[in-house]
Amino acid sequence: MTIDACAALVERGDPDRFAAAMATPPAARAKLFPLYAFNLEVARAPWVSKEAMIAEMRLQWWRDVVAEPTPRAHEVAGPLHGLIKSANLPLDVFDRLIEARRHDVYADPFADQTEFDAYIDATSGGLMWLCASALGASPAAEPAIRAYAYATGIARYLQAVPDLEDRGRMPLPDGRPEAVRALAGQALSRLHIARANRSGANRRGIPSAALLSGWQTEPLLRRVLADPNCVANGTLALSEFTRRSHLAWQALLGRW
């Protein structure tokens, strides 16, 4: 039950967040890796079995991990429990994140854009807010962080669309190219809103390490604006040079 075990899990299962965490100071990594590992475990839970009941039980197991007063003997649950206690992390944010993943257990489409947006906010927004809270963010910064997280969540989700379709899901409320382009535009607008509040939010204390996982967000969304068909055909990605340069730039300057 160590931070190293969490880091190894993230390295195997979520290499983009692993790269982002490794670009932060060691003290930040110690808080990011348990949260990223928790997120990975919860995101995987709906897919571990074709039996919905088993997936639901795994999600409930993580809900219990978060709520119980004593840690469980698990490579992620132990470090996560310690972080929750030491950083006084909001349990309701964990609960909403886990609850949102119940949608992935079933093949039902999102009812509408509002339900889809709530899913992105609970998952991507919840995770980024937990990371920021663990690193000392002020509650006043939450709207700006969630706006940035929404844009990041949309970019990552659009990359996952082909895989979700292969698994028999209907991932988007509207999968037409023009609707996908509009969704990317909406996400970019949220990104601009977050940045417009950046100077004031920074004075309220947004730790840039918590937002570094969104380093690919803007170039990915701009690719979708230019060619929304890249989502359906599975080519929404950046070159290795572009990925590395964006991560280095954002880590060096502490900008997002």
General description of the model:
The longest helix has 25 residues, at 142-166. With 256 residues, the chain is an all-alpha fold. The chain has two domains: 1-106, no CATH class; 108-256, no CATH class. It is globular, with a radius of gyration of 17 Å. It contains 14 helices and no strands. It starts with a helix and ends with a helix. α3 (26-44) runs antiparallel to α7 (113-134), α7 (113-134) crosses α8 and α8 (142-166) packs antiparallel against α9 (177-196). It has helices at 3-13, 15-22, 26-44, 52-67, 77-87, 91-100, 113-134, 142-166, 177-196, 198-204, 208-211, 217-226, 229-232, 240-253.
Number of strands: 0
**Fraction of residues in helices?**
over 70%
Structural class: mainly alpha
Task: Tell me the count of domains.
Answer: 2
Count of individual helical segments: 14
Poorly predicted sequence stretches spanning 5 or more consecutive residues: none
- Specify the biggest β-sheet: none
Q: Evaluate the radius of gyration.
A: 17 Å
Round the mean pLDDT to the nearest integer and report it: 94
